[in-house]
Amino acid sequence: MRLQTFETDCGGITIESYNIRTTISLAINMKIHIVQHDIMSLRPEDNQEWILQELETAEAKDSLLTVFPACTLCGSPLFGAAAYTELQKRTQAVLQQLISYSDHRAFLIGMPLQIQDKGLCNAIVFVQNNAIRAIVTKKYLAPDEQKYFVRGEGVQVIQYQEQQIAIGFYEDLKELSKGHIEQPDIVVCCGCNVFDCNKPFRTRYRMRKIVENLNASLIYVNRIGGEGQYLFAGGSMAFNAAGNLLCQFPYFKEHSASVDMQLLEECEDKKPNSIALVHDALVMGVRDYFAKNGQRRAVLGLSGGIDSALVCALAVEALGAENVHGLLMPSQYSSDHSLRDAEDLAHNLGIGYDIVPIAPLFNALRSTMQPLFKDRAEDVTEENMQARLRGVIVMSYANKFGALALNTTNKSEAAMGYGTLYGDSCGALGVIADLYKSEVYEMCDFINSNGIIIPLNTISKPPSAELRPNQKDSDSLPDYGVLDEILSLHIEEQMSKDEIVAEGYDESTVEMVLRRVRQNEWKRLQFAPLLKVSPMAFGIDRRVPIS
Fold first, then answer.
1. In terms of CB atoms within 10 Å, which end of the chain has fewer, N or C?
2. pLDDT confidence of residue 332
3. What was the pLDDT predicted at 179?
4. CB-based burial of residue 208 (10 Å sphere; 0-12 exposed, 13-18 middle, 19+ buried)?
5. What average pLDDT does the segment 176-205 reach?
6. How many whole angstroms separate alpha carbon 417 and alpha carbon 486?
7. Are residues 282 and 259 in the same domain?
């Protein structure tokens, strides 16, 4: 079998590709070194440093092959940055450096690669003994990738050290079940899989099925880290041909290890917990969002409610209490217990806070607008004025002290448009905007499982925006338990009104919910970037017309 020969347009490197066979009379080295790492997007030179350090470890030197995740040199998703030749040239230069360090060793590494007579491909490059031996190009491209990358060839089988090794991207592994390639001894899946709460379970199931169907051992390697709204969980794993789990890497932590693919003994199979996974994803997402944007201080409004309490607790885990500041902004409609609950939270977490009453500002603004409003009765306008004043205060603090404002809107509120544009929609990051309200309660219970951090009264009291006397969320929205079930069926399951009603829900309630979801798309488009943890996040996965 002779593999295809490639030439790159960027950097002038000719890539020879051929069979690599070594006749060995003794037992074959079947150790594969797996590297699960956080990747810096658009910074191939920074990624080169930790890649070289990994290749210099004793475990890497003693292994048949070192496997890095897909998109290792530049990160993912690249979007329009992939098209810039300057980035391609820098990546090519780093690849050349890595090739020169590959004496007597082999590794797989992912990167965007401009291939002559083909175009820009998302590629996995097989490097061995100071040369590129093969290039695997991604075939099944995501919609965002299709704008910048050309369709590749998919999974390839290479023969190396008397082993048939099938190499491919996670998305291309469907080729294995279709019988499009010859029977491999080892499958190596280089992933760069965006996290959602179901993905770890789907991935484990899919990897096991490939092993069962092919009777081949398997390596799955995935990166960790946050890239803006996109989170990567890691969870790399290896199976032998008998289907035994040989290793399971931790989620959301950098980790590397060598695994002997000839082992028969199965390691302990610890099933991940969904709530714990989402919690760790959000903490990592906040931490990386700040670190990779050169920021470290956060500020948010603390209302005494459950949403701001959860965001604050997650921020403290991610950034440290010394880097999180709360602003308590009571109005004449705020209850005494709300202020007390917010202070209790701040004390429990050890963060600094200030109390900034908005009643004087609200009264002044109301007086200013009275000549324009004349004798019109007060309505939602005055409620929104209060929310926007709070937004101004939070953003002003952020500007003055060099902090980023955290948004505290949840997915239920975002879906229904239950929030004030340029008010409680302010912020640099929507930390829990992909969690339904019922999931917010679950997460708070999880955080409190080892001791009370979020005050119990915050969790137990009826939710309220406190923008008018005795206001409760239930005045404007169905019970959150019912609302979230309807929203999930419509958003995640993509069911229509009639299909949801057929599930047993009240028709008028379903119609109202779906109407408000549809009417508020324009508002969500102006929302802060959110951390994706569900299979169908607003603005990332679910994109619909606004009119």
1. C
2. 86
3. 61
4. middle
5. 88
6. 15
7. no
> 526 is written with which tokens?
């102006």
* Percent of the chain scoring above 90 in pLDDT: 83
Give the mean model confidence (pLDDT) for residues 293-319: 97
Q: Are residues 294 and 404 in the same domain?
A: yes
How many H-runs (helices) and E-runs (strands) does the chain carry? 18, 21
Place of tokens 């803006």: 228
533 in a structural domain? no
Choosing from 228, 243, 272, the residue where a domain stops is 272
Are 223 and 192 in contact by the 8 Å Cβ rule? The answer is yes
Long-range contacts made by residues 468-477, C-beta under 8 angstroms, separation at least 24? 468/333, 468/382, 468/383, 469/333, 471/333, 473/418, 476/418, 477/412, 477/416, 477/418
Q: Are residues 256 and 332 in the same domain?
A: no
**What is the token pair recorded at 460?**
């137990």
420 pLDDT higher than 50: yes
Same domain, 226 and 297: no
Ordered alpha helix ranges (H), 251-305: 274-291
Q: Are residues 119 and 197 in the same domain?
A: yes
Q: How would residue 3 be classed by pLDDT, with cut points 50, 70 and 90?
A: very low
Q: List the one residue out of 128, 127, 178 whose CA is nearest residue 154.
A: 178
- Closest C-alpha among 100, 99, 98, 102 to residue 63: 102
* Residue 360 burial (CB count, 10 A): 8
261 and 368 both lie in a single domain: no
- CATH number, domain containing residue 393: 3.40.50.620
Q: What is the pLDDT of residue 176?
A: 83
**Same domain membership, residue 367 and residue 459:** yes
451 in the same domain as 332: yes
Q: How confident is the model at residue 8 (pLDDT cuts 50, 70, 90)?
A: low
